[in-house]
Amino acid sequence: MPSAHDLDVLSRQLGRPVRDVVEIPARCVCGNPLVAATAPRLGNGTPFPTTFYLTHPVITSAVSRLEAGGTMNEMNDRLAADSRLADAYREAHEAYLRARDEIAGRAGTGEVPEIAGVSAGGMPTRVKCLHVLVGHSLAAGPGVNPLGDEALEAIAEWWTKDRCYCEGAWETEGEAPSKDLSRHGPQGLPAIVGRPAPVRKGQDTAETTEEGTA
Ligand SMILES: [Zn+2]
After folding, report:
1. Does the predicted model carry a pTM greater than 0.85?
2. How many domains does the chain have?
3. Cross-strand pairs, 21
């Protein structure tokens, strides 16, 4: 479970309150979170397929630079042309789903049939969000998500795992963006990590949120 300090840091990194974070699967060498893991069903019942969310602002902005530079188009072209890469990427998708099941088991959220077989970031056949892939690579370690691993290598001039880049990366003075970081807080606040809760008109129009950008 994330500590109260972890949740405080996460909300500062993201500039908004965090909800339903159940684990911190990757940390800076200094101990601060790099990635937050969210259970596949939120406390309010919403299915949530994006298990691994990149939270560190230095990494997030570096990955945004890659996206702006066209890396995803290039990766999608290679996925279409290189069957070995496509196979490895499909395996990454399967690994993502297995990791999510394990997290759900530890968090006690049970089966989430609404998102069975649905991962995130465009997997298993496309690249739609490099932040998702990098979050997965950091959580899983090298050798699991080939395109997340590539993206991490590509940001090495801005971030590497052996150094701390936390100094000055977020506001450390004053109150964190939310005082109430409990799993079962008041309704009506953003319910998910890193972005506002989906607008829901009723139970049968409940949306799932596919992928995040910070
Ligand atoms: Zn650090």
Report:
1. no
2. 1
3. 38
CA distances from 167 to 32, 55, 89, 164, 179 (A): 11, 15, 34, 8, 23
CB atoms within 10 A of CB 177: 18
Are the C-beta atoms of 133 and 164 separated by less than 8 Å? no
For residue 177, being part of any structural domain is answered with no
Distance (angstroms) between ligand 1 centre and the Cα of 197 equals 28
- Using the mean position of ligand 1's atoms as its centre, give its distance from the Cα of residue 161 in Å: 10
Specify which residues 198 forms β-bridges with.
Answer: none
130-176 pLDDT, tens digit each: 999 999 999 999 999 999 999 999 999 999 999 999 999 999 988 88
**68 C-alpha to ligand 1 centroid (Å):** 25
Is 70 among the domain residues? yes
Cα of 99 from ligand 1 centre, angstroms: 25
CA pair distance 156, 95, nearest whole angstrom: 24
Under 8 Å between Cβ of 135 and 155: no
Cα 33 to ligand 1 centroid, rounded to whole Å: 8
Among 143, 119, 130, smallest CA distance to 71 is for 130
Kindly state whether residue 194 falls inside one of the protein's structural domains: no
165 CA → ligand 1 middle, Å: 5
**How far is the centre of ligand 1, averaged over its atoms, from the C-alpha of 95 (Å)?**
27
How far is ligand 1, taken at its centre, from the CA of residue 146, in Å? 25
